[in-house]
Amino acid sequence: MDLKVAKFGGTSMATATSINQVADIVKSDAGRNYVVVSAPGKRSKNDIKVTDLLYSCFYDLEIKGECKENFAKIRDRFTGIVEELGLKFDINPYLDKVEEEMIKFHSSEYCASRGEYLSAVVMAQKLGYEFVDAKDIMVFSQEGVFMPEETNKKVAEKLSVIKKAVIPGFYGADELGVIHTFSRGGSDVSGAVVARAVNAKLYENWTDVNGFMVTDPRIVENPQQISMLSYKELRELSYMGANVLHPDSIFPVRVSNIPINIKNTFEPSNAGTMIVSAMPKEIIDKRAVTGIAGKKGYSIIFIAKAMMNNEIAFVRKVLSALEYYNVSVEHIPSGIDTMSVVVADSEIAGKEDAIIEKIRAAVSPDAIELKRGIALIATVGHGMAFKPGCSAKLCTALANAKINIRMLDQGASELNIIVGVSDSDYENAVKAIYHAFY
Ligand code: ASP
Predict the structure, then answer these.
(1) Atom 5, ligand 1: which residue's CA is nearest?
(2) What's the pTM value of the predicted model, to 2 decimals?
């Protein structure tokens, strides 16, 4: 029996019915000893996640000094779940303490973390597993930075003497006991951290879809499911918007080559997507493109200057100007006398003119222009490396769909080809690329 860490997302924890399904899944495999849970998510399209209600409580506290109305909704959700599960356990004292401490600590991260805390308390009761508070094992610095090595030691030590436990995802604490959270969706990271610490054979990430699809099902109808993905491919795809799993989740498991299996709580028999450190050769030989992901909301800073290629430190000066304004850069495709810097709109919002002036002062370009409305699409796959014709196929597909490529970037690793297209062409471009390879 292989040791597994099973992490269940918000939809899996949303109702008593889904929690019963979670319990059945956990109990059906004697190796599922450590369970990490999210806060209850949406029960229907227009429902509100418990984490969002908790953030609203914090804002209420800021503005009105009380959060009775929103906290009542949280209380109702948890008492309802406990009652429907038929647990002989009173959750009200836990809720009372949380409400009291939310007022006392006045911290948005403390408030946000309580969904996972209460969810794990309930799940531990349901399974008869021990509850292990993430605040005692997940270590953050006082500045709120996650400390992986300190955490690994603490989790390993604590769980070495507890055979079966439920651990809340999403948060931890610093040495003073102050609660800090990961970014949104961070319970995925917590699960990966636990998997590394207990040296699990497998990290199961249970969600509400059958794993990764080759591309966004909102754009392409019924895209194929990806059966296997490498850590590297996952990183590229999730960075570019394939948001089944938090992009930081691979770092802890990568250290020990622990595979991640994305599974669907509502269709447990589906094999889901397996994420592995090294892709088997047979798959690489068979499949050029593993996935296609993309996002709108980018701009290109286009710079031209005669003899740019001869000017020492030209690129550094441009990048220093961007660094001055704290802008992180996505891609820098360049020509002989031109360079383009691709940036996310969110990075430059409100400071566009100042950035252009700073670059102008730094390198005196012949021309500099900000081109807005760019969408980036990453076509990712180990199978593209050393296979002639992949970029030709991709470009031909876009040309046939009458889509103009505004930018093209392929690194020497050949793991991905990134194209920039106009926002308005985004959906059609994704469809064209998908149908060219699938
Ligand atoms: N509950 C948190 C969120 O909604 C963390 C998580 O579910 O992973 O972002």
Answers:
(1) 185
(2) 0.87
